[in-house]
Amino acid sequence: MKILKQLFDFYIDSSIHVALSCFALVKMTHYMFHIPADTPITYFAFFGTIVGYNFVKYDALARTKKFQMRNELKAIAFLSFLSLIVVGFCFFYLQKITQIVSMAFLSLTLLYTLPFFPNKRNARNWAGVKIYIVALCWVGVTLVLPILNSGIEITSDFYLKCVQRFILIFVLILIFEIIDLQYDDPHLQTVPQQIGVKQTKYLGYVLLMIFCGLEIFNVKGNDSLNVKYFSLSLQSIISFIIAVFLFFSNDKRPKYYTSFWVESIPVVLCVLLLIFG
Questions:
Q1: How confident is the model at residue 139, as a pLDDT?
Q2: Cα 209 to the chain's mean position, in Å?
Q3: How many CA atoms lie within 13 A of 245 on its CB side?
Q4: Terminal-residue alpha carbon distance, the chain
Q5: Nearest 5 degrees, angle CA 122-CA 128-CA 131?
Q6: What is the value of pTM for the model shown?
Q7: Alpha-carbon Rg of the chain, whole angstroms?
Q8: Are 75 and 14 in contact (CB under 8 A)?
Q9: CA-CA distance, 163 to 213, in Å (whole number)?
Q10: Which residues, given as ranges, of the chain have pLDDT below 70?
Q11: pLDDT at res. 64
């Protein structure tokens, strides 16, 4: 039992689970825009998430040498190194425009993590900015890059989906910020720190209603009634699930509440889409 818990903790701490969520959102993008299987961009997103998240989580600790290199951290470092090799390999199979835009999102990730200016904090510690940077990066990796790499025409559907994806990620991050309220530096000015937990939940509920409402404009006129009904129903179901997690979120919840259950929501959404779509 202890070994299973250690394996599960490694699965969470090494960012494999969050990478699976990213993978699920990329697959959803392929499904929604009728894009054939695109292995390079899918693997690029999955392994890139492992590299990016582990870099964000452990870089500051590594540079300040505030921890000893335990076996688990050595394994995470090795996994990240292997993932970086896969990311580099997949990068050269991407379209030129995808490579350029991916470098822009990489720069944003580095800005989020590293202090580029002397005596200045990184973007992760800029008051009130963290949630927008993270949501923007997720939209870029899971929606913008797959669309660009496919070469399909950019239409109003793309921009609408970008807004929906941003709202989805934004609300999920709100749950994280509520859970982490007792640990976050007050100077971060996270949403719960600025407006309180109760108002943050109300904000999340409103955004979820907007998320569902936008789906009305997202279905095409030539779609069948069944397709429109399914699309609206799916968005409503996933919004309800997120709303339930948001309702029960508080700073006393264990880490698995967000690091496993909340991060599983995109996977659930993808499975529902593939099974019933």
A1: 96
A2: 20
A3: 26
A4: 38
A5: 85
A6: 0.90
A7: 19
A8: yes
A9: 12
A10: 59-69, 111-128, 218-228, 277
A11: 52
